[in-house]
Amino acid sequence: MAYVGTPIDTTNTFQSLTGDRFDGDGSAVAFTLSTAPASTLDIEVFVGNVRQDPNSAYTVSGTTLTFTGAPPSGTNNIYVVHQAKSVGTIDPPATETIAKTFTGGLTSSGATTISGALVASSTVRVGSGTTSAQANGDDVVIEGSANTGLTILSGADDLAAVYLGQNGANNDCKFEYDNDTNALVVHTNATEAMKIDGNGHVTKPKQPSFLVSADTQSNVTGDNTDYDLLFTNEIIDRNADYGSSLFTAPITGLYQLSASLYLTGIAANHTSVFVSIVTSNRRQYIVGVDGGATDPADSGEAYFNGSALFDMDANDTAKIQIDVRGGSKVVDIGGGTDGATFFSGALIA
Question: Which residues of 251-287 are buried (b: 16+ CB within 10 A; e: fewer)?
């Protein structure tokens, strides 16, 4: 930033003390100075070696020195000493392209354009005041009494971004707007967490979600025994939270869990089947098939599905269990990635 304040005279006239001498004639009151002072206080005026009062004995206008009373006659009995004072004021330039560092606070109440780096070791304040700023967020404050905003503009094919992070790490979190694709991307822990494309579609690449299918399992028996079904064919595992036929919640939240099963081999002699979604702190039955209610001997099969909302803590697990009761106590589970027995879930809130 250029010099701010009242500049030193660039004509070098006031770089050292200079003076003017005049002869009084008893009638002349106006004399021409070699340099125009800014005020009566910028010069010392002597008449007959007596210093004159700058507030009453004389005035200055440009280079004209005018006495309120005519000095007496004498050779060089009037002399003026110029005090090398500043002669005016200048404003900072409208734009500044050189990086500057401010060791104190910087306050701007009007428009300021900065095309280079601005570094301030204290608060930067723009607007009408900072009375409403939070204590942990008052290093840069933009405040106004009406509509107030911050604008970041970049090239047509470039990013406009805000970066957040710990001291020494400037890429932990960032908000990027891609002017080329009109997409807003949010990164956390240096990883893309959410993307809103130009049409408003929202995707979350790391959102916990999974879809797995069951192995073919024959002669599942029970009689009041909960049997863990095996789902080992991973189709979707967005955040790598599924394994060993268990979904493990990575974070506390609300999870929507669903199951779809295809059973065969259901006996006609009153075989009953109960299927449940089981988490670390809750069991939700999603179906019960009573072989005695109808006569499934014609087909010996059933297809059903169910879903429920679960409040899971971090590290809670979820699985599917089946309980076969009565009759032969035996059913078969249809499996394979193209089958009809699936287990799925996702974090929703």
Answer: eeeebebbbbbbbbbbbeeebbbbbbbbbeeeebebb
